[in-house]
Structure formats: C-alpha cells, structure tokens
Amino acid sequence: MNDTIKLLKSHRSIRKFEEREIPPELLIELIRTGQAAATSSHIQAYSIIHVTDKHLRDQLVELTGGQKYVARSSDFLVFCADMKRPLEAAKSTGENVVSGMTEQLLVATVDVSLVAQNIAIAAESEGLGICYIGGIRNNPQAVSELLSLPHHVYPVFGMCIGYPAQYPDIKPRLPVEAIVKKNRYSDDSEHVNAFNLTMHHYYQTRKGGNKVSDWSQSLAPRFNQKLRSHMQEFLIDKGFEMK
Amino acid sequence: MNDTIKLLKSHRSIRKFEEREIPPELLIELIRTGQAAATSSHIQAYSIIHVTDKHLRDQLVELTGGQKYVARSSDFLVFCADMKRPLEAAKSTGENVVSGMTEQLLVATVDVSLVAQNIAIAAESEGLGICYIGGIRNNPQAVSELLSLPHHVYPVFGMCIGYPAQYPDIKPRLPVEAIVKKNRYSDDSEHVNAFNLTMHHYYQTRKGGNKVSDWSQSLAPRFNQKLRSHMQEFLIDKGFEMK
Questions:
Q1: Confidence band (pLDDT; 50, 70, 90) for A209?
Q2: Is residue A237 part of a domain?
Q3: Where does the record place a coiled coil (chains A, B) (predicted)?
C-alpha cells in the first residue's frame, strides 16, 4: 500500500479545528492542485468562494443549520457549479449559446466535485482536515444572495479546512462486493445486511458517543421526508432550467 | 510540494494503454480506497459496473461515440449514481420513503464523483492512467439496458484504467485567480482573456497535433447545440423525477 493510498484510506471528516490559520499561499496551492482534476471537455465549470469575512462566516453557520465549525475552521470554501463563465466564453466567439440543459447541470456538478475532492486530498496530504458541508443547500437562495452568486452559478457544497483538533474513528464503508458489479447490475441485499451488522457494532463502540442504530436506520430520516424540496425551483430560478 | 500534491498536479487523461492487465486484486484495492471518500450522510449512493465482457466493451465503444480506448484499456468501469440501495435500506426500516427529489439527484451525482476521483488518484499513485468517459451519457438508455441498470440508478460517467502507453502534455487550467473569489462572486473576464492566450499557445505547441484555437473557441461547439438533450427525460424515466 503506497503512501497516497494510505492517505486516502485515512480520511475522516474533521469538525473540530485548532485555532491556527492555514498560510494563505498554502491554501492557494491546494486549490491550484485541485484544478488539475479532470474536467469535462476542459470546461472547468466551477468557482470557489473563499469566505474570510467573519460576519459572513457567522451567517453561513446559521444558513447551514447551525454547524459551528463553518465559522471555526481556518478557512471555509463554498464550491459553486459555474456555467456562467463557459457560457460567456462560448458566446464571445459569436455563437448563439444554449443554456439550462439538465446535461449542463450534471457536467458542472461533476466538475466541481472532482476539483473539491482533489483539494480535500491535497489538504489532507499537508496534515489538514476537511469537512464537506452539504448544508449549504439548506438555504441556497439566501447563500446565493449573501455571496452575490449570479445566474448560472449555484452553491453545491461548502468545505471547512483547518488543522485537526480531533481524530474521530474512520467510518466503515459498504463492502466493496456491494459496490462493484460484474458486467450487469445485481442484487446486493446480502451485503447490505452484513453492513447493517458492521454499522450496528460501529455505533456501539465508536469514540465520542455511541447509539443503537445501523446503516438502514441511519438513512431513514433522510428519506422519510422531502429533504431540500426547494432545490428544483431554486435551480430553475438560477438558470439551470433542467430541460 | 509533497509527493501526493506532485501526483495530483501530474494528471492528464490517458487514451492509449499498454496491453497489460491490472491485477484483479489491485483493481479491487483501488475501488476500496475510493470508497473512503466523504459521502453525504453516509449514504454511499453509487455502484460501479466493472465491464469485463469483451462484447459489452465493444458495444460501449459504439454507445460512447466510438472511443476505442473504452475497449482497449485494461479495465472499464461505469460509475452509476445509485439511489436504489439507500432507498430500499430506508424502506426496510418500515418508513415510507420519498424518491425523485432533485436534491437526491445532486447528492448521488456528487457522491459518485468523489469516489471516482479517489479511485483515479489511487490508480495514478500506482502508475496507472485513467480517462473519464462522459460519453456514457450519449446513450444512457441503451447503456442502462446493456448493463441492466434498474430504477433509481443512472450511469454518470465511465472510466478507462490501464498502464499508460502515452504521456500527453498536461493541459493548462484557468488561473487560480479566476476560480477563487473572495467573499463574493466577482467578474473574471480579464483572467479568461489571459487564459485564451495561454490556450492559444498550448494548442499551437502541444505534442500530438497542433491547431489554431483558444479556450473560448474550444467551448463553442459544446454550447451552440442542445448537447445530450435526452438527459432530463431519461432521468425522469429512471426515477430521478426531479421534483
């Protein structure tokens, strides 16, 4: 197992950080490294809002559901899918351009995810810890207003980055046999059952608070309600018309 | 610059591979490593179809627009956003579950992208090369039938993996100043103009075929048509109703 694979396997989300700033030139280097990720047809459909203003950080804590580390990590980045830049670039050549395709929503969402994951790994390789903040989609309209996000730009997730002040247990993952299917999709309920036992054990024995649950039970609250039901209307409003 | 950052920065898509197989246990180890990526609420909303059948590989060459390396790389993976597994897990607890939310489409698309990027990096750390195949969305319905993808599962992209038989130039990226915005979204057209000059020079001097173009010109064919206009209907049909 080489060092990079070791690093990748040691990922855990960090939610407690030292009161220590990341040198600004290191942060920029991490982002530049992130940009080396693959990008669909070189489109690079993303922008990153680096939120340094303390007042904005505090407001983002509220807008993401009270996650205090959004204000307490050394840095907070808002990763945006950005179709504005490529659309304008294409238009500048004299072409009539088409916007609002579902395909464009997918491309930009994948593009920004690949960059973010590269940044996460680069950060971890420098001894930093990160936490993705999907809660940025709790109030995407308010976040967009706060950060002046224009048409054809939407906030996909945030990321806290800083020096870790905790080392939580690494959370187990589904057996690889559940994830990988040979040539055709196949049933994996047997592996899910096994994983429920794994997670039951994990929740009982983990550091920092145990509970009685398993994987299926932990997912239930996520699916028994219309979570973030505003997203479609928000995206349409933002020019990701999804047609 | 540490070795992991060096590795990340050396990424280029590989489209020519040696005729040499990746040991099966290494491939599984790469995928297991990929699974360590962050996942929204532990949902792990992805499946990977490992296509080993030669006939299927040949058909996928056609369905992705004639990209021969889809058949010629040691391995070909089809990365699917998979909401079936978590929906069924949640349902098994006795809950009434909600499917088809746009939010779920986003979560699964991000989840599978993070895993894929981790696998890409793990592969490159072992001296392998990769190429993402967005062309899997050229004919997503036919791909779904070929690979028996069920409801609530959709193919997001493919990935060729193998031992590189080429080392193309590393493609420049937008200046980091265009990508990163401080506290609020801001105009970046000045940096885009500079990048057009960078790309003009790159296209004139790169190995393996030069041409007269720049970034904006290279994007025009992507936006002057309704590229993959079937995606919305396809996703609705697959149970990503986008509501």
A1: confident
A2: no
A3: none
* d(CA A209, nearest CA chain B) in Å: 17
Contact status, residue B171 vs residue B29, Cβ threshold 8 Å: no
Six-digit token string for A225: 């309600």
Residue of A nearest to B124 (CA): A4
Residues B197 and B120 in one domain: no
Q: Tell me, what's the ipTM?
A: 0.98
Q: Do B136 and B161 belong together in one domain? A: yes
Helices marked H in chain A: 3-9, 24-34, 54-63, 69-72, 84-91, 102-125, 140-146, 176-179, 189-205, 215-223, 231-237
> Using the beta-carbon criterion (under 8 Å), do B223 and A149 form an inter-chain contact?
no
Tokens of B120: 């890409």
Determine phi and psi for B150, rounding to 5 degrees.
Answer: -85, 180
Contact A2, B33 (CB under 8 A): no
Distance CA(A46)–CA(A63), nearest Å, equals 21
C-beta atoms of A134 and B2 within 8 A:
no
Of the pLDDT bands very low, low, confident and very high (cuts 50, 70, 90), residue B96 is very high
Asked whether residue A116 falls in the same domain as residue A210, the answer is no
Which residues, in sequence order, are bridge partners of residue B153? B82
Distances (CA, A) of A44 to A13, A208, B15: 26, 39, 20
Q: Give the CATH number, domain containing residue B13.
A: 3.40.109.10
Residue B56 in domain: yes
Count of structural domains, chain A = 2
